[in-house]
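Example S7 (structure tokens).
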């Protein structure tokens, strides 16, 4: 029976670990009428400290081709000469520390430690104990920031950022289309009439 519970815990860990951890945030000029923008263009990407990570042709193509497809699906038309709105992106990776917590599962009755019987941190009987930080781990986070600039005023009118933990550079570059799609879901596209 104990092996069965260990198997279930391992399966749950794998399933939860494979879930997407991408997060998105956005801001915009609230009074702006975004329906007036019909054409768009691109500014060069903003230089970042992540030259070795996202500064290559594959990453650039993953970002621009996905963004162009999404923008055109929502009714905007690419214009090299005289666009109404300009987009630019910033792709970067930064290092941060993340706390590692102890496992809260002890799996037995009557364990005599501080998280066992009659403890405020556990279920009665010692199946569950408190989780507390035991170490720090260095992790990398990849960020993709898209900005929209009103060409007539040369001001940023919309910005959105997507970020996720990065462990393998190639996987992060291959996942850029999903990140771009998620970021552009935050853009205030006008609703299209059918």
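Recovered sequence:
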């Amino acid at each position: 029976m104990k092996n069965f519970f260990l198997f279930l815990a391992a399966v749950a860990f794998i399933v939860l670990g494979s879930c997407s951890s991408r997060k998105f945030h956005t801001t915009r000029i609230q009074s702006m009428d975004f329906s007036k923008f019909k054409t768009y263009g691109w500014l060069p990407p903003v230089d970042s400290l992540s030259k070795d990570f996202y500064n290559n042709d594959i990453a650039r193509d993953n970002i621009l081709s996905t963004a162009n497809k999404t923008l055109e699906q929502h009714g905007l038309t690419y214009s090299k000469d005289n666009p109404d709105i300009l987009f630019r992106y910033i792709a970067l990776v930064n290092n941060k520390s993340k706390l590692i917590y102890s496992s809260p599962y002890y799996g037995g009755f009557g364990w005599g430690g501080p998280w066992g019987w009659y403890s405020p941190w556990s279920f009665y009987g010692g199946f569950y104990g408190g989780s507390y930080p035991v170490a720090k781990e260095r992790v990398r986070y990849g960020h993709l920031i898209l900005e929209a600039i009103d060409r007539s005023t040369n001001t940023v009118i919309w910005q959105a950022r997507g970020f996720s933990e990065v462990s393998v550079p190639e996987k992060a570059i291959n996942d850029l289309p999903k990140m771009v799609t998620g970021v552009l879901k935050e853009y205030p596209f006008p609703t299209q009439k059918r």
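Notes on this example. The longest helix spans residues 57-73.
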